[in-house]
Amino acid sequence: MSGAAPGPGSGSSPAACRFAHYFVLCGIDADSGLEPDELAVLYQWLEADRHGKSQDAANTTSGENFDQSPLRRTFKSKVLAHYPENIEWNPFDQDAVNMLCMPKGLSFRTQTDNKDPQFHSFIITREDGSRTYGFVLTFYEEVTSKQICTAMQTLYQMHNAEHYSSVYASSSCSMDSLASSTDEGDTTSLLKLQRYNSYDISRDTLYVSKSICLITPLPFMQACKKFLIQLYKAVTSQQPPPLPLESYIHNILYEVPLPPPGRSLKFYGVYEPVICQRPGPNELPLSDYPLREAFELLGLENLVQVFTCVLLEMQILLYSQDYQRLMTVAEGITTLLFPFQWQHVYVPILPASLLHFLDAPVPYLMGLQSKEGTDRSKLELPQEANLCFVDIDNHFIELPEEFPQFPNKVDFIQELSEVLLQFGIPPEGSLHCSESATKLKNLVLKDLVNDKKNGNVSTHNISMYELLKGNETIARLQALAKRTGVTVEKMDLSASLSEKEKDLKLQCEEAELRDYQLNVQLREVFANRFTQMFADYEAFVIQTAQDMESWLTNREQMQNFDKASFLSDQPEPYLPFLSRFIETQMFATFIDNKIMSQWEEKDSLLRVFDSRIEKIRLYNVRAPTLRTSIYQKCSTLKEAGEVFRQRLSAVDIVAPEPHDFCAERQVDTQSIEQRLMKMDHTAIHPHLLDMKIGQGKYEQGFFPKLQSDVLATGPTNNNRWVSRSATAQRRKDRLRQHSEHIGLDNDLREKYMQEARSLGKNLRQPKLSDLSPAVIAQTNCKFVEGLLKECRMKTKRMLVEKMGHEAVELGHGEANITGLEENTLIASLCDLLERIWSHGLQIKQGKSALWSHLIQFQDREEKQEHLAESPVALGPERRKSDSGVMLPTLRVSLIQDMRHIQNMSEIKTDVGRARAWIRLSLEKKLLSQHLKQLLSNQPLTKKLYKRYAFLRCEEEREQFLYHLLSLNAVDYFCFTSVFTTIMIPYRSVIIPIKKLSNAIITSNPWICVSGELGDTGVMQIPKNLLEMTFECQNLGKLTTVQIGHDNSGLLAKWLVDCVMVRNEITGHTYRFPCGRWLGKGIDDGSLERILIGELMTSVADEDLVKQCRTPPQQKSPTSARRLSITSLTGKTTKPNAGQIQEGIGEAVNNIVKHFHKPEKERGSLTVLLCGENGLVVALEQVFHHGFKSARIFHKNVFIWDFIEKAVAYFETTDQILDNEDDVLIQKSSCKTFCHYVNAINTAPRNIGKDGKFQILVCLGTRDRLLPQWIPLLAECPAITRMYEESALLRDRMTVNSLIRILQTIQDFTIVLEGSLIKGVDV
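Structure (tokenized):
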């Protein structure tokens, strides 16, 4: 709570250890009378602005909504009193407390309405993240002011007149579904209206709501609830309380201490003692909200899903008619996050006047009160793309798209189900939660039973018989009594009732104990999941800074956690969730706290978590099970429950009972006194205060006006717990003073600390108090700054991860980003863009703000198409070749890319379309350009967005587009790799070398394009047409092209330079170099060739590539190299023996590295085998070294000729060896070798001799046979005839070295692309 300056009665330092900080009374101010709620007026102003209406129209009503009956309108409540006046370290925020005590303002009722008291709690999160808890009991008091009753009657007369005149007219409603819903339909007749919604001063009694509230530093919800209910009971009881109410309020404010960690506390309310307990320093932190209710309200499955959304820091909106349900679910779920903490906006109860908070473009957890009968479809929420909507009352949740499941979800739910069933709770939850909904009513009924009267407002007593009339036992007693002539009405039931009271009290205490035990067990199960998942987290924390100052100063530039290594160490099923979770702010803060623990006292949650991990290590001695996905149940349930039971059974801190309690409880007092002898903390009991005569006067049904002077300050005498807390405070002061002098100016240090700890947070907790339009505008400025900062950090992270540190610094090395991480970062970027487009939004169609904007832009552009062409930019380059054949330019068009997405039947939602469009634009390197074009239509932007929206802040918008432009420096395949089943149009062009080839060919050519996801099959190319388009299912990244012809006609020979293939959606163009002839009797006689592809870089991108020095992808074999191998020219320099051996080592090393990467991160194995610097090329160079004259009698000689001679020799000769085992092995190897070569020769394919050698190497590598075949060929007699003596194959040491190198890839399972070995049956 912030804002107020310290005032009188601010108390002394020990007050930090008080159980409660403030007691507050809220209600109607009789002097001011009925005032419309100013916040409601402000809200109407904001809504008018949102819908583009004039503010004057909004102001004319001055908060008077004549459509609503006066009893249902919002009137201003006030803080009538609060004690003490102020506390220095927790200043009293009057506006926030008033708003949260009475979120709906004052409520009025008549004697015909339900006036049951209602309990709810709230939380105020300060800007520094610390929290204060409020516990409120709202009840109804009779209005005694004649002025207010008259005002209400006048309002009703105006309302009836207004409603009668418009009963048949159609009424317009803006956003009433969010703020309020009209209580009467338009068709309601005036007669019905007057009968059921009227107030007559002469006939009706008017009641108004009043709230009593305790504000505490810790969430002792049950204890505060009991204390407040006892206060209420004292107010409504026939008999005045034993002491004036001031005694009890003074006692809880000044004399009841906070129980120290690991202790329990017993203090006294008006009628009975209250016990609370606080977990020890090594236990899970305090949580007093019953998780049973949260699980009953949502059901187990739904709760785990919402819990996952909270972990991934999505926007979570809770929706319920009941404020306490909102708090129970919000606090329950955040409690289960241990050891992590929610780091963003947290407002479990959002007053109706603060709905503009939902416009916040940041992760939030908010609770919104629903009106009875308001349908979810009527809610106009600004942002829905990343929203988790939780309708608590209807047991229903809406999840965001692209939602990863929690690891081991099925086993996790099963374990939780077992715990719930032990306590008799159905895992599916209770749809209407009858038990939870009626708990307070039952409690109130119990109070009424105890008081033997109606505890609300009635002036007459009700007999016990009337209260219990529906009881079957009483009915049977009544029948028996009639027969015996006894009147039940007059029967003295006091003895039996006292027994029943004891039973009921025992049942309540037992139920409370079971709730506590269930809380402990459920939290242990959740904590155990994180302990298992992050048991090794410490090994991946990067601690580079030597001191805290340097770490804080450079925090933003530093990587604190080795994410890639951590993910590679995790079980595969965990990765979708973990890859996103480790990007969250709560995880970053957790790691920051770990690093800070080197220099500061360890964070309490971190300390408990680390101790649990240590325990696991002791039990398992670094068991390998930690890295498997095998589910491990929680083993500490019994132990945790036992600690709790022991603490409750041995109360540590006891406040003695008041002196003037009756003598019959002396036995209890003696036992308490005996226990007190062992106590080291004792609180003063409630006692008579020094009050003026006549004050503290009791009047049944009315909360008395409290005497301020006795409640404003605490006692002057210090008891033991006060002095002890003062000592602790002095110790803290010394530590603080020491920390101020460690070498860094304190103000600067604080600035660094706050910046470091809020890194990634766009805005800290928004204030609930000052809500003027100026403050709202300032808040939105902070949102804009935060969004820009987040965009800068995200794009920087994407660039660094994609390039890899080595590539950036040294100009080489492989990108170290994993496919999973890349997908996570892109999903995060999509989420950021949706939040930016949702900020300040006025008009939205559908759930995606970005797609809504795009659609409206598209509509406007298409309407103008008949006047002028829609904006089109030509592609940055035209693909030309020597032959002059080229790919036609692919036009760049925002609208065209939208149409591609709209044509994808696989995507069903607007959110999905927006994300697909972002991915496509990013892959095409057009995201920044497209968004700039979208925002260039200023009239549309002004129509869609409010003045303060991010997209209307010109300077920030330009910086934002610049940050997105930087992503063009790297290649993404985020569209191609995700939408794998869509149909994609491709365009291919075959480019011949016309100088050497025929201008026209008579044969029938064909082509087959293959990619990582499949191939097209053989497609016939129309004669003499070098260009064709075709459509097929997404092939992924293209890898190979098979091209050939049937050799028919006179002009059949064809010299192909290369083949170009382009994906017409993404614009990716691949070049497949050939530089070889296709035809019989020329080159190696091949009628078909397998070409290896390379992705072309656009001219515009080349400059960026040069700047960032990122290495290009590995190329396929060049024409020049191929021509030299086949000796078509002798001009190219041949590699020497050293270079060839180095090439073999490099090729094999690349394959080994390929298999050491996670499966999803591996590139194309085909390129490593058949591309430039691939294994086939390296072995070709080995076989070409020392090869005798390439031409014999004007005929080309190829490696395959040598292979065939070797086969002929093996098939006709039985070799003689000394060792029989060697004979068997060699015979087997010879037989296998001959079988493979013959299978390749007899395959129904017109492959040339070089192509056959490539297939042989690929098959030998796959089947681990190359190390057996090389020595056979080296010892074959044909080698002496075909190779010179200096050849590498004739050197025994080189051959043995080659065998050893090839054996290193035998451990891997090699799967060959189908296009490489098609038709070869081995």
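The chain has a mean pLDDT of 74. The first helix runs from residue 38 to 50.
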